[in-house]
Structure formats: structure tokens, C-alpha cells
Design goal:
Blueprint: H1 10-22, H2 27-34, H3 41-57, H4 61-75, H5 81-97, H6 101-105, H7 111-124, H8 143-155, H9 162-178, H10 182-199, H11 202-218, H12 222-229, H13 241-258, H14 261-272, H15 278-294, H16 298-356, H17 362-394, H18 401-412, E1 420-427, E2 430-438, H19 441-453, H20 457-467, E3 472-474, H21 485-489, E4 492-503, E5 506-515, H22 523-553, H23 564-573, E6 579-587, H24 589-596, H25 598-615, E7 620-626, E8 629-635, H26 642-661, E9 668-676, H27 683-709, E10 715-718, E11 721-724, E12 729-732, E13 735-738, H28 741-752, E14 757-759, H29 760-766, H30 777-790, E15 796-801, E16 805-810
Antiparallel strand pairs: 1-2, 1-5, 3-4, 4-5, 6-8, 6-9, 7-8, 10-11, 11-12, 12-13, 14-16, 15-16
Helix pairs in contact: 1-2, 1-3, 2-3, 3-4, 3-5, 4-5, 5-7, 7-8, 8-9, 9-10, 9-11, 10-11, 11-12, 11-13, 12-13, 13-14, 14-15, 15-16, 17-18, 17-22, 18-22, 24-25, 25-26, 28-30
Length: 817
């Protein structure tokens, strides 16, 4: 702690103490005295505390609270506990007046600091000190440590602090009893009672006696409770009315709980001799009636109950009269307000009547009014016609459904009384809302926030129009069978739901709503909205049909890729920008169709197309031009570009690998690439160049394959398999196997007459089995040979011709073109 002030300012301290004492009767003089000298920091804090107290006395509670809390924060770092306690007291009283006790509690010092502050406060300023003030310094739940520390400090200040110690002991005893420590609590209450009796503190004595009687009664110690209340009657003259009644009530409770009904009645008699408030009379009559009932005096009990009822009735009547008086006062004010409004209306009526007198004839006025109505109807009819015509013209524009519905709603709001318009789009289970128009900010908030966030709005507003062709109207939304309570609570009184068709699996619904009082949808509004709904639905569904027809016309039905027509449009549309085209030819399709059927060929095409679509980058589009011809188109490359070749090759090789994995090992793909405008005068020339490069690659690949697979001397070739007549090994795409001498001779004979039927007799001679074909030796050798050939190639096999012999069937590899 830093020292508060040097010794040379001691006289100024005395001046501030004098100013503090002047606050009650002479606040202005106290302010003047505190403002004389504030050069020292400690003196400035004391002066600010005096000004805070003066503000508190003047009712300036916010200013007093703010300044007192600031002073508390600065005094916390000094040794001046007296002025700290004074500042805390001011802050507490001001916060109570402002109902801001938490602000003071948040700055509570530690228990030891609070106790020390209270001790100094009690000793230096007894008129303002009270143990209950410590409640202002801390929270009710943490009060016990503070009070206990204060009591210990006051014990050391005896006898100067005995009157404060009495009240502190009573408060601490109450807290101990509430905490369940009854023995300690009773001891403290008895000590507080004795100290209060010694110091003449009647309020402290009454509090201690009342609580002692209550605690003993709760413990069933009725004799102790009676002893605690001894002497109440003898001191009745010294006690105030409320204190005396409190002790008499305590005595009644003790005797009532002890079962001494007569004694309780006597105590009640003494209580009735005092002046009781209305609630106290009710409590006393209720206890007295119960006592008479327990004593069997039912007539007296009944009489007391009647008195209680009458008293209650009187109290209720007083309360009702008070409330009626307040209502009457409000009624009078309302009457005066309405009278003023009536007078204003009368004045307005008089003014209008004076204006009407200027008209020359009543018939002329009627004619003018009729003409005005007719003009209004004509204008209204013209506006409706213009609106419907505008909606119809919108359908002729190339607008997507969202823009079409948005513009249509904007037109409709000119002739329909609505507070907000929104467009709902539902796809699957997801619904989105877009606010198109709102009359006010509240309406916009409802349509933009309340409507999308309300649970059940999908069923309440969208189910019927989305599942039916006709619009629905609700003039009193709350009474509808499918209303949403959240929307009703938000103020929705009417709504119209208009189905606007379905396109690309999205269902569009136009929503118009009204807030506030219920308003009927007029026949004109219903006609306009119904016509708008039908027009939009027809336009959206027509767009959907056209879209699906165009998609079907530009899509290959087998593979799902874009077709030749789409390819030609794509090349034509891209003529103004650079692009590259790759022409692809799927090898092996004809062989698959011939050997495994057209269903397998279709599967090969679908698998290759799916792989092509999956492997192609985002900026590359795949097409099927027909048969085994396909194409890739990519933007941004105008001439020969190695990167384009690498990209196409990577896509093709990955797609070929995918179809081979899917069970088509014979599949392969050739391609050619060209770029516009760097490699042709027209896009058609570029496509032709890519096609030429495709077939050049195919021929080069065929030549390389033929050179690589040309057999050496002594070998026999059939299809994609080779028989080495020296080693008797057969090699093919699927592997290699060795034949027996008989099997090798039989195979050579069949290859020599491939695609022809060789009789059993000729094969027997050619295979060296003449005279040995007993037991079906030829059939055994043919069966083994057929099995071994199946392990090396899928493109060659031995077919049995019933009644004739056998034939070797095989297929050359490059037969697609």
C-alpha cells in the first residue's frame, strides 16, 4: 500500500471530515469546502467522494454511481479504508436507486478489506453505520465471511463498537442458522440479543428475539422459545408498533406449534389489541379460526372465517377500487382523446361540406362521379389487359423459367393488392425462395427471412399448387386446413400460390402474400393471377419439351455422348475462336460384333464412351459420330501443339485400358489431331485433316504390327496365332502352349485347309493315325487341340461339322476397315 498523504496536509483532512458532516443539512457548503484545495491526490479523492455524496442527496443517481465507482477503484490502492467505505456506501445506495446493484458487487473488495472498511466506518461515522450495510459490499451468498471478519474486528474495538457488534452478531447468527449450523447460530443470536439489550438497541433486540423464537420453534424446543420471548409484554411501551406486532406474531407461532391452543388464543388477543394492517389481520384471523376449530368451537371458527372472508372482500374491494380508479382515469383520457378526434373529424367534415357547396348542381356532381368511376374501370381494365399482354409477350422472349417468373411477378403487382411476392423453386426435397417485390421493409423481412426459415412452409404453401394445375387462394390464411402456425404468428393473413410449371426437374411456384388484417382476393385478382399461372406454366412446359427434344436430337442414344449433329454445331459455333479437334476410331468393334454378337459390341461402345467422358478434362467435349467413329473438341489451341497430342493420347490410352479391363482385350483406338485456324482455311478442312491423320496412324500401326508379327521360317500362321513346326509351340495373344506330335500334325492339316471342312478320313491320314483310329483317338486329339488353342487365342477354334469332319475357323486382326 502507498501512503495516503504527508503530514503537512493533516488540516485539510480535518476540513474534509467537516465537509462530510455538513452533507446532510448543508450540502452546498460541503461542496464549497471540498472544492477549496485538491492539489494532493489523496485530497482530490476525498473531495470527489464528498461531491458524490452531494449528488446522491440531490437525486443525481447515475452521476453519483459512476463517480463513486471511479473513486473506489483509485482508493483501493491506498490505506484510506474510511473513505473507501464511504465511496462504497455511496455506490451501493446509488445502484439500489437505479436497480443496478450488480455494478457495485462487481467491484467488491476481499472479505478482510470489507470487514476492515466496515470497522473504520462504524468507528468514525456511527450515525451512518449499520451492520446491514455490508450487504451493499458483497453478494448475499458470500456474506458470512464478511460478517464474521467484521465481528472479529469489532470485538477488538470494544466498547466503542459494541452497538455495531450487537447487530453484526445477530446478522451472523441468522446466516449460521440458514447454513444449518444451529448451535453456532443460536449462540450468536443470544449474544447479539444481550449486547443489544445492554446498548439499548431495541431494533437489534427485537430481531434477535424473533429469530431465536423461530429457531427454537423449528427445533421443537418450545420452552426455550418461550424463554426467548419473556419480557416482551414488559417492554411493549418501548417498542414501536411494527416491532411489537412482530414479537406477538412470534409468540403466537410458538404456542400454535407447541399445541398450547389457549395460550395461542391469549397471544392473539394481545395481538388484536394493536393496530394491525390488512394482511396482518388476515393472518391473525386465519390462525385464530384454526385454533377454535381444533378446540371444537366450530361456531366461533365459522364466525372468524366469515370475518376473514369479509375482510378479504374489503381488501379486494379496495384493490379493485384502486384499479377501477386507474382505469377510470385512463378512460377519461381516452374519452378526451376521442372527443378531440371527433372534433377534428367534424372540422374536416365542415371543410369538405364547404367545398361541396361550391359545386353548381348536385346532378353535375353525380355525373362527374359516374364519369370518374367509369374512367377508373376503363383504366383498370386497360391496366389488366396490358399486364396480361405483357406476361404473354414475356413468354415469347428467350428467358429461363426463373427470369420469366420474376418479370411476370413484377408486372402482376401493378394490378394485385399484395404486400410481398416471392418465387419458390423446389427440386427434390430442397426449396429455395427469392423475394421479387415487397411493399415495405417489414414485408421484405417476412419474405426474405421468415418465409424461408419457417418449418412446415413447404407443406403449407407449396404442396397444393405444386401437385395441382390450378392456383390456390387463401383470404384468411389462419383458418386454412394446411396453415403454418409460424407464418400466422409472423402476421401472414392471406396468400396466393400459383403453379408455374416444371423444367429440368425444378418445380416453380409463385407466392403472393398479405400481412395485417384479412382481405378478400377479388374476382379480378383471381382472374389475373389464374391467367398468369396458366400462361407461365404453358411457357415453362413448352421450354421443357423443346429442351428435351433438342437434347435428344443432339445426343447419341447408345452412348449418351453428343452426336454428329452436335459435333457439327460445336465446330460451326467455335469458328470464331481457336480450337483443336481429335478424330478417333475404335478398333476391334467389328471383330467383337462378329465373334461375340452386337450386344457385346454395344457394351464395348458404352464402356469406351463412359471412359472417354470420365478421362477427358473439363474443357474437352466428347462426341460419337457414328459406328466406331468418335471425336474430341477442345478450345484454345489453334495449330500443332504437342501438349494437345499428349492430352489426347493420355485420354485415349486410359479409355482403351478401361475397356480392356472390362473384358475386351482386342480393343484399341487410333486418332488424329488438327487445329483451327492454324491448319486449315475452314473448320471443315481442319476436321478432314484430323481424319486423314487418323487413318495415316491406323495404316502405320497396321504396318508395324504386321512387321512385328511376321513368323520365321518353319512357322504356320492362322489368325493372331503362330505354330512353330519345329518346337511344336503355339503362341497367341493369350499365351503359349506346346502340342504333341500328333496334335501338331493335325493342326498343320487344319491350317492348310483353314475355313474348310476336312473329313475324318483325311485327318486320320494327315495326322498319322491311319489304322490306329480305334476307340476314338482322333476325337481325343481334336478335343485336346481345341482346349489348348482356347488358351492362346480367342480368334481361332476348331468346329465340328456333324457327319462330315472338322474345320479350323479364325479371324484376321485388322478387318475393321
Amino acid at each position: 500500500m502507498k501512503p495516503l498523504a504527508p503530514s503537512d496536509v493533516l488540516t485539510r483532512h480535518e476540513s474534509f471530515e467537516h465537509a462530510w458532516r455538513l452533507l446532510t443539512d448543508h450540502p452546498a457548503q460541503a461542496r464549497a469546502l471540498a472544492s477549496v484545495d485538491q492539489t494532493h491526490p489523496a485530497l482530490a479523492l476525498q473531495a470527489r467522494t464528498v461531491h458524490c455524496a452531494a449528488d446522491l442527496g440531490a437525486g443525481l443517481y447515475p452521476e453519483a454511481l459512476a463517480e463513486a465507482l471511479a473513486v473506489v477503484d483509485e482508493l483501493r490502492g491506498t490505506t484510506d479504508q474510511l473513505w473507501l467505505s464511504r465511496a462504497l456506501q455511496i455506490a451501493a445506495l446509488a445502484s439500489d436507486a437505479l436497480y443496478q446493484r450488480d455494478l457495485t458487487l462487481a467491484r467488491t473488495p476481499r472479505p478482510s478489506d470489507a470487514a476492515r472498511a466496515l470497522q473504520r466506518f462504524a468507528l468514525h461515522s456511527p450515525p451512518l453505520a449499520h451492520p446491514g450495510d455490508i450487504w451493499y459490499l458483497t453478494d448475499r451468498c458470500d456474506i458470512a465471511p464478511h460478517v464474521r471478519a467484521t465481528a472479529q474486528g469489532l470485538e477488538q474495538t470494544a466498547p466503542a463498537g459494541r452497538h455495531i457488534l450487537a447487530q453484526t452478531s445477530v446478522n451472523l447468527g441468522i446466516l449460521e442458522c440458514e447454513a444449518g449450523r444451529l448451535a453456532e447460530g443460536i449462540a450468536l443470536l443470544e449474544r447479539g440479543r444481550d449486547l443489544a439489550d445492554t446498548t439499548g438497541d431495541l431494533a437489534g433486540w427485537v430481531s434477535a428475539v424473533s429469530h431465536l423464537a423461530h429457531v427454537h420453534t423449528e427445533l421443537g424446543e418450545f420452552a426455550a422459545a418461550r424463554r426467548a420471548l419473556n419480557g416482551v409484554a414488559s417492554r411493549s411501551a418501548e417498542l414501536s408498533g411494527s416491532a411489537y406486532r412482530s414479537l406477538l406474531f412470534a409468540q403466537v407461532r410458538v404456542e400454535y406449534q407447541a399445541g398450547d391452543l389457549q395460550a395461542a388464543l391469549l397471544a392473539l388477543g394481545a395481538l388484536h389489541s394493536t393496530t394491525l394492517t390488512g394482511p396482518e389481520q388476515q393472518a391473525a384471523l386465519l390462525i385464530e379460526a384454526d385454533l377454535h376449530a381444533q378446540l371444537g368451537r366450530y361456531e366461533e371458527a365459522y364466525t372468524l372465517i366469515e370475518r376473514l372472508a369479509e375482510l378479504t372482500k374489503q381488501l379486494n374491494t379496495r384493490e379493485r377500487d384502486r384499479q377501477l380508479a386507474q382505469l377510470d382515469e385512463k378512460y377519461q383520457v381516452e374519452i378526451m382523446r376521442r372527443d378531440a378526434a371527433v372534433q377534428q373529424l367534424k372540422a374536416e367534415a365542415a371543410r369538405r361540406e364547404a367545398e361541396m357547396e361550391h359545386l353548381e348542381k348536385v346532378e353535375l356532381q353525380r355525373a362527374l362521379e359516374s364519369n370518374a368511376i367509369l374512367i377508373h374501370l376503363l383504366r383498370d381494365s386497360h391496366l389488366v389487359s396490358e399486364t396480361l399482354l405483357g406476361v404473354s409477350q414475356l413468354t415469347q422472349l428467350d428467358l429461363d423459367p426463373v427470369d420469366l417468373a420474376r418479370h411476370a411477378l413484377t408486372l402482376v403487382t401493378r394490378v394485385v393488392d399484395a404486400d410481398w411476392c416471392a418465387l419458390a423453386c423446389r427440386k427434390g426435397g430442397q426449396v429455395t425462395f427469392e423475394t421479387v417485390w415487397a411493399r415495405t421493409e417489414d414485408s421484405r423481412a417476412f419474405a426474405s427471412v421468415t418465409l424461408p426459415e419457417s418449418r412446415g412452409v413447404h407443406e403449407a404453401l407449396l404442396h397444393s399448387p405444386a401437385s395441382q394445375d390450378e392456383p390456390t387462394f387463401a383470404s384468411s390464411y389462419e383458418r386454412g386446413t394446411t396453415h403454418c402456425p409460424e407464418l400466422v404468428d409472423a402476421g401472414l393473413s392471406g396468400c396466393a400460390s400459383l403453379p408455374a410449371g416444371t423444367a429440368l426437374d425444378v418445380t416453380y411456384v409463385l407466392l403472393l402474400g398479405r400481412l395485417g388484417p384479412d382481405r378478400e382476393w377479388t374476382e379480378r385478382e383471381r382472374r389475373v393471377l389464374s391467367a398468369t399461372s396458366h400462361t407461365l406454366r404453358a411457357a415453362v412446359e413448352s421450354q421443357e419439351r423443346m429442351h428435351r427434344s433438342r437434347e435428344a436430337a443432339l445426343t447419341d442414344s447408345l452412348t449418351g455422348l453428343a452426336n454428329r449433329r452436335a459435333f457439327e454445331e460445336r465446330v460451326r459455333d467455335a469458328a470464331g475462336t481457336a480450337f483443336s479437334v481429335a478424330m478417333l476410331d475404335l478398333d476391334g468393334l467389328k471383330r467383337t460384333n462378329d465373334t461375340r454378337g452386337h450386344a457385346a459390341g454395344d457394351t464395348l461402345l458404352r464402356v469406351f464412351a463412359a471412359a472417354l467422358r470420365a478421362q477427358a478434362p473439363r474443357d474437352v467435349q466428347a462426341f460419337r459420330l457414328g459406328g466406331d467413329e468418335m471425336a474430341l473438341v477442345m478450345d484454345g489451341h489453334s495449330g500443332p501443339d504437342p501438349q494437345v497430342d499428349r492430352t489426347v493420347r493420355a485420354v485415349v490410352e486410359a479409355s482403351v485400358a478401361a475397356v480392356r479391363t472390362a473384358g475386351f482385350p482386342e480393343a484399341d483406338c487410333s486418332f488424329g489431331v488438327a487445329g483451327w485456324p492454324g491448319e486449315g482455311r475452314t473448320p471443315v478442312d481442319v476436321v478432314a485433316l484430323a481424319d486423314t491423320r487418323l487413318y495415316a496412324e491406323k495404316q502405320a500401326r497396321r504396318a508395324r504390327r504386321s512387321a512385328a508379327e511376321r513368323p520365321p521360317g518353319g512357322a504356320v500362321v492362322f489368325g493372331d496365332a503362330v505354330l512353330d513346326t519345329v518346337t511344336r509351340d503355339v503362341r497367341g495373344p493369350l499365351g503359349q502352349t506346346k502340342l504333341s506330335p500328333r496334335e501338331s500334325e493335325l493342326l498343320r492339316a487344319l491350317v492348310h485347309h483353314s475355313q474348310q471342312v476336312v473329313t475324318r478320313a483325311d485327318l486320320t491320314v494327315m495326322g498319322g493315325l491311319a489304322g490306329n483310329d480305334t476307340g476314338g483317338a482322333l476325337d481325343v486329339h481334336i478335343s485336346n487341340l481345341r482346349r489348348k488353342l482356347a488358351g492362346v487365342t480367342e480368334h481361332a477354334g476348331i468346329r465340328t461339322v456333324r457327319g462330315q469332319g472338322f474345320s479350323l475357323q479364325w479371324y484376321e486382326e485388322f478387318t475393321d476397315h
